[in-house]
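Minutes, project huddle
Topic: does the predicted pose make sense with adenosine-5'-diphosphate bound?
PN asked that the exact inputs be recorded in the minutes so nobody has to dig through chat later. Recorded below.
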Amino acid sequence: MNSLLKEYHLQLGITVLLGCLLALFALLSPQTFLNGRIYLSFLSTIPFVAILALGLTLLVVAGELDLSFPSVMAMSGFAFVESYLHTGSPWFGFALALATGGLAGLINGLIVVKVGVPSIIATIGTQFFWRGMSALLAAGLARNIAVLRDSSFHHFFVGRLDGIIPVQAFWCLGFAILFSLLLNRHVMGGNILFVGDNIRAARLNGINTDRVRLLLFVMMGLVSAFVAVLISLEMGNWWPTQGEGYLLLVFAAIFIGGTSVYGGRGTLYGTLIGAVIIGIIEAGIISAGYSGFWTRVIHGFIIVASVSIYALIFRTRR
Amino acid sequence: MMMTGSCDQASVPILSLRNICKRFSGTQVLNDVSFDIFAGETIGLLGDNGAGKSTLIKILAGVHRPDSGEMDVDGQPVDFATYAIGRARNYGIETVFQENSLGEQQPLWRNIFVGRELPNRFGLLKIGEQKKVTMQILRKYVGLQGKAINADSRVSTLSGGERQGVTIGRAMYFNARLVILDEPTTALSLGEVGRVLNFIRQLNCQGSACIFISHNVGQIYQIADRFIILDRGQVMGEYRKNEIAADQLSNHLLQLHNQV
Ligand SMILES: Nc1ncnc2c1ncn2[C@@H]1O[C@H](COP(=O)(O)OP(=O)(O)O)[C@@H](O)[C@H]1O
Ligand SMILES: [Mg+2]
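Predicted holo structure (tokens), as shared on screen:
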């Protein structure tokens, strides 16, 4: 029991933090937070940030970053809507979006792994590239796909189960379970942990570190494309700045969750709760009657406070 | 080499190297290195810093690929194009590298099995089994005196000696036929050094061979049956223990050192 507590103290801590926030919001605005409707609204918006953050967590655990995913979302989202509008087949559009995202991820991976550019720099570059490329191809114009709203395709990805529960929440849960199994139980997860912990040691133990990192970049490209399709469907359109707001929210979710920026250690449960915390703050603040400007202030405070606590716990001071 | 009839079995070396050459960006690090290793013996590999000892054993271990030369395992030629750490391990070649090969933040059960996990048919790890074996290794090779080390302990909580115990225990557990130890005793206390030397004796008794690299001629002389002296990438001497005394061996090394 004691060792369990020790092993999972991080997960416990972040859950308590979420509980406290919810209690605080319920106290400040009971009419909102003691009513199921706000939670349904959370279930429709939080999964987008959460799925992206879950995917990126694996990359961060391996000691890499990807700052390009918002632009990869725009590019692959554009591939989705444009090919759907031309062919009338949303499934074809979906496949093309995944192919686009996977290719963008592969390019990131090759630049980082084979050429040797640090991932933070490489993905700043590709981030500009894909943002520009998607805007160019779209001639700077948005695309409307509201006609898909009643299709089975739409229901499959972002419909409402029983007319109530947003389906994207189940996708999010699926990703959380899949990635948790991968990281904690699968051979690949062990490889990811060692690559992030000490890449030289990983090599000396026979891990193909290039392959592990390439796969992770491709995975992140695919995840970005998947979320881009979901967001386009949920909103009924694609627009050139799609994905732009997600960068900092996603990183905030990961680091609030307790994943180490140095690699080698991370928790997908923490990331999931981190995404929820980031996602409920705005609603909590506004329904308590405060200005929306407080959202950023509180986001900032919680991020700094939680990473400071982790730094103290793990003694990462140099 | 003179061999009596009864030793014919041992006359096929476990591993044999011929004319191994290796360059790193223009510098010749290994130049025509050849030698054989037989079952049940320990070779002491000596040489100054930068002589190429680590590079040589990394070629055996599958980390580096030589530019030219051949290697046989049990008399069968090894194809360097496909040779890698996993292959070396399959041959029963286990290496304790000079540099850290443990994941600091990972639990011991992951470190023991990294690169050769026990997965079920879905690729999911048999964690319970890996932890059980880890505890066996800890009991047998690391010694759990009073300290709360278990399979879930992180490497970062271990002392230098305990870490070395883990890497050596890992090498011993997997039925190695050739254990390579690259300066394993540099950071160890006297007692811990004794433990390492005992492991090597045990290995030899079981018929496994060992390559032991150290700067400590005393230690090497104590444990090895043969000595190979490497200097600037070349084998400068090869002696059996009965051919050379400990102080002659030190003098030989000193002379090479002073030539630089
Ligand atoms: N990966 C590498 N890349 C370039 N040079 C290397 C590499 N590894 C070793 N060297 C060089 O090869 C020479 C031999 O090194 P090493 O085999 O580590 O010697 P030793 O273990 O005998 O001290 C040194 O000059 C070292 O700088
Ligand atoms: Mg060395």
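Observations noted during the meeting:
- The first helix of chain A runs from residue 2 to 7.
- Chain A touches chain B at residues 3, 7, 181, 185-188, 190, 193-194, 197-198, 200-207, 260, 264-265 (CB under 8 Å).
No decisions taken; revisit at the next huddle.
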